[in-house]
Design brief:
about 140 residues; mainly alpha; 4 helices; about 0% strand; DUF2568; transmembrane; DUF2568 domain-containing protein; membrane
């Protein structure tokens, strides 16, 4: 086949298809875990802020929620995002993917959401491990 791709078709590794090592259904589960992490971080941050015995605890809760979600987004964007220039290689990336899940799960346990955090961290560990790890294909395709 020539180097020309028709619309709707993409060769593996040329940016149009799934990134190397990402399997369809597991990547959907992994993405849902990422969204769940942001939601759990926000709820956990809100509850942590509400624990404080201060007059403006709702304002504090909002600030803590935004800070916790922002921390997760910054870590993810810096080291795990597919287009990040400083994206880590496997298996170190796997550890930085799981670190926010574990940290938020531990904080969630403090505010009574421990089971939510534990289940989310477990599902994320399985989904990220199976969908993105152990990829035998190179990240770039050789020229032909």
């Amino acid at each position: 086949m020539s180097g020309v791709h028709h619309s709707g078709q993409a060769a593996a590794g040329d940016g149009g298809g799934l990134p190397p090592g990402v399997l369809g259904p597991l990547s959907i589960v992994a993405f849902c875990c990422e969204i769940g992490l942001l939601v759990l971080a926000g709820v956990t941050g809100w509850r942590l802020g509400m624990l404080a015995d201060v007059p403006a605890n709702r304002a504090l809760a909002a600030v803590v929620a935004v800070l916790l979600v922002s921390a997760v987004v910054i870590v993810w964007a810096r080291w795990n995002a597919p287009r990040s220039p400083s994206r880590l290689r496997w298996p170190l990336r796997y550890l930085t993917q799981l670190a926010p899940f574990v940290a938020v799960a531990l904080l969630a346990a403090i505010v009574g959401l421990g089971w939510w955090g534990a289940v989310l961290a477990f599902v994320a560990a399985v989904a990220f491990g199976l969908s993105r790890g152990g990829n035998p294909r190179p990240t770039t395709t050789p020229s032909r």
